Amino acid sequence: MPVHRVRPDVSVLSDSLEVPGIGHLPVNAFVLHAAEPVVVDTGLGLPDRDFLALLGQALDPADVRWIWLTHPDRDHTGGIFALLEAAPRARVVTTFMGAGIMSCERPLPMDRLFLLNPGQTLDVGDRTLTGFRPPLFDNPATVGFFDDATGVCFSSDCFGGPMPTAELAEGEDVRALDAASVREAQLLWASVDSPWVQQVDPMAFAGSFGELRARAPELVLSTHLPAAPAITGPMIDTLASAAGQAPFVGPDQAALEAMLAGFEPPTAPAAA
Predict the structure, then answer these.
(1) pLDDT digit string (tens) for 207-250?
(2) Is 97:117 a contact under the CB 8 Å cutoff?
(3) Contact yes or no for 257/189 (Cβ under 8 A)
(4) SS3 state of residue 81
(5) Of 114, 91, 88, 126, whose CA–CA distance to 9 is shortest?
(6) In this structure, what is the dihedral angle of CA atoms 183, 185, 188, 190, given to the nearest 10 degrees?
(7) Which residue, among 98, 140, 93, 138, has the nearest Cα to 120 in the 3D structure?
(8) How many other CB atoms are there within 10 angstroms of residue 196's CB atom?
(9) pLDDT in tens, 167-181
(10) In 10 A of CB 19, how many CB atoms?
(11) Exposure check for the chain: N or C terminus, fewer CB within 10 A?
């Protein structure tokens, strides 16, 4: 799980999961080294992950002032409660719905919340962060943001795409993979993560990318893609073409049984 300092004020805490039939899915968290440091999402909650140790490679967890939870899915919340203990001054930036969803498992402490909706802003000392609803999402509580000082876009699941190897999934720059393969991966992820695109009006959907086109960020940081500098335009064109795309259909029970049978050791011949 490498840590990449992709800009002087941005660290990517990289991780990935192998998803059979799909590829190696990046699962990133981020640190924005602002005057009031911001951690964006908190990684996977698997037993073999230690989010605080990974975060400690980028900064002292006690210095964290804000935890921007882009949405409360488990691949974004793995280390959140450990981080709240380690960072006593930190507050969780989320929505009313996001806090409610989290409360179904383990409530966030109400006095540590900062509720923020798309279009609203957060002052983190030396810059302002502006929340926005990414055009593609799998959770209604999703709020990404733009760093108004640098133009960097933190896009949550939007722009994600599985990579062919774990090395590429945890790499520093998505351009290590050729452009055609990135496009294919992003359209696949759109069909997996946002299956509702099959039902949207193409013109209305294309219009939902207006804010991204207007801001034209020089760097896009998605939870599920290596850092993507200077290719925002082509990526927007890719995702805008996803309207009407058929949703991904995963393996069924028969396929699962076939996979499990392949894992079973061969039966030893009966003794004579």
Answers:
(1) 999 999 999 999 999 999 999 998 889 999 999 999 999 999 98
(2) no
(3) no
(4) helix
(5) 126
(6) -70
(7) 93
(8) 11
(9) 999 999 999 999 999
(10) 12
(11) C
Across-strand partners of 130?
121, 146
CA 65, distance to chain mean position in Å, is 20
| 8 A C-beta contact, residue 38 and residue 124 | yes
Provide the 8-state DSSP code for 218: S
Q: How many C-beta atoms lie closer than 10 Å to residue 249's C-beta?
A: 9
Query: Checking DSSP bridges between strand 219-222 and strand 228-229, what pairing results, if any?
Result: antiparallel
Distance between CA atoms of 124 and 107, rounded to whole angstroms? 25
CB–CB of 161/239 below 8 Å? no
Cβ pair 216, 257 in contact under 8 A: no
Which residue bears the tokens 């509580």?
A: 141
Tokens standing for residue 183? 């496009």
182 SS3 class: helix
Token pair of 250, please? Answer: 């995963």
What is 89-148 written as a DSSP string?
Answer: T-EEEE-HHHHHHHTTTSPPPGGGEEE--TT-EEE-SS-EEEEE--SS-SSTT--EEEET
Q: Looking at 202-252, list the stretches that DSSP marks H as alpha helix, in order from N- to C-terminal side.
A: 202-207, 210-215, 232-240
Q: Supply 272's token pair.
A: 């004579």
In DSSP terms, which residues pair with 146 in a beta bridge?
A: 130, 153
Backbone φ and ψ for 97, nearest 5 degrees, come out as -65, -40
For the entire predicted model, the pTM comes to 0.92
Sign of CA dihedral 164, 170, 173, 174: positive
